[in-house]
Amino acid sequence: MFVEALRRHLELARRGLLTLRRFPTWLDPERREAWFLAIFEAEEASLAGREARWFEDALRPWDGEFKELLVECLLTGLADAALFVGEPDKDELLLERAVLSVLLRHQIVKRWDALSGGIRGRRSAEVAQEADARARAEHTDLRGVGVSRYADELQLARTVRGEVKLLAAGEVFLGLRGREAVRWLLALEVSSALGDHDRWRVSMSRAKALTESLVEFFEDGAPAPWPWDFFTRRLELEGLVEVEERRDEHGVFDWRCRVTPLGVELFGELDQPSGEALRSLARATLADEAHEALHGRPPAVSEAAELGRHTRMVAHELRNILVPVQLSLKQLRRLGGSEGFVADNAETLSVISGGLERALRFATETARMTSHGSSRDELFAVEAALRDAIAGVQSALRHPVEFEAAAGVERVYLRGRRDRFVLAVLNLLRNASQVGGAEVRILVQAEMLGRSGARLVVLVEDDGPGVPADQRAAIFADGVSFRAGGSGHGLALVREVIEVELRGSIHCEPSPRGGARFVLRLPIPLEGVT
């Protein structure tokens, strides 16, 4: 339940719903408490005797944590039901009515028209009822855990001027499910732990101890004899630890604490090579965030993105080496079977086969995990990215791609997702080869735009049949292809990357070589020239 509540909190941040500008009463703890207190006092004034005592008992579950959970559950439900209209006053009123309908349902308030009639009112009432049930169930399990504080402490999100913003580590978390999400949280915790007594993080020494101490006991009031305390109750909610409360014949409580098989697996992985790769990604992601917090802008080169690229490159090379060996081993088994070779060396061949499979699985898994942190905007060197695109398609071309860059281009950087830019250029180069272009050339230069800044111009041209004038605009539409066997998606993706993600422009024109020329114009950010 902890992971689900954390996911909801970060999803709300991603959707821009956790902002005081939109919900000033409900997202400010002090205003929220004052408003609830005013409602409770107004109702209490009309009660007396037994009713007053009942009312006091009814208010006990309404502590600060429950109110925060209820508001977040209501925000999620109302947004999912498409009831928000995007206007702060109207949305704030809608949320207020939903809260009051929950109070009315529990008879905390007795005389109030909670929600208006009609379809919108009925849908809002249904959302409020479901959100109330969800918040009460979570409050029972999450008491004292502090989901929003945990998100801040682990830099999954950050509150800036009353707005909760999703950070890169939170983006990675939202892209994962199940044990992968828990694995990422543990990697963040051990990578930023401030010692064994850190309330919000499990240190590496604690993680090791948890894998070694499968069952322990401690009595009420006595110090825990292993790395466990009530601040780390989220480990129980994540399925990593089981805690059983017991009472002896004298009425004294003690607890039986057991690390679950999942806990043993995930805590143990942290100190393994696969765990080290994930911890390296966690450290790089946190380092990028620290740089942005300190300097007010992302780093020129993202450590997380660089790590992801390097890891994928190493994994790719390992696969290139190991797959042929694996195929050769299978062929050896097949050819040697008739001569008894396989039977005589079955154990040795099984060891070799098992080792190859583990190595391939490790390479694939490591590359997959580290790729989660590399899909983010960064400053990247244009020339190096273009050369990567050329290397990715060169084997399919009859002649080497000509590359010509004006002086100073090696010092030009763009801001965006480097992998998407490389993919866009790669699609242009593939398109040139698929239409029959024998010679392909890339020309790059930077242009000054006076006081408005500078832009980069990239020309990708070939000597193929070219594109007729009446088709030069249409070829960028998704699903449109004038080439036999073409999907019509390649150039549509190129336009999306260039125009939407990099805020540039692209068009097609005739090439002096007789084929097609694609002209990319991309704005260079202020920090894009070194």
Automatic annotation (TrEMBL):
<dbReference type="InterPro" id="IPR036890">
    <property type="entry name" value="HATPase_C_sf"/>
</dbReference>
<keyword id="KW-0418">Kinase</keyword>
<protein>
    <recommendedName>
        <fullName>histidine kinase</fullName>
        <ecNumber>2.7.13.3</ecNumber>
    </recommendedName>
</protein>
<keyword id="KW-0067">ATP-binding</keyword>
<dbReference type="InterPro" id="IPR003594">
    <property type="entry name" value="HATPase_dom"/>
</dbReference>
<dbReference type="InterPro" id="IPR005467">
    <property type="entry name" value="His_kinase_dom"/>
</dbReference>
<dbReference type="InterPro" id="IPR050980">
    <property type="entry name" value="2C_sensor_his_kinase"/>
</dbReference>
<keyword id="KW-0547">Nucleotide-binding</keyword>
<dbReference type="InterPro" id="IPR004358">
    <property type="entry name" value="Sig_transdc_His_kin-like_C"/>
</dbReference>
<dbReference type="Pfam" id="PF02518">
    <property type="entry name" value="HATPase_c"/>
</dbReference>
<keyword id="KW-0808">Transferase</keyword>
<feature type="domain" description="Histidine kinase">
    <location>
        <begin position="313"/>
        <end position="526"/>
    </location>
</feature>
<dbReference type="GO" id="GO:0016301">
    <property type="term" value="F:kinase activity"/>
</dbReference>
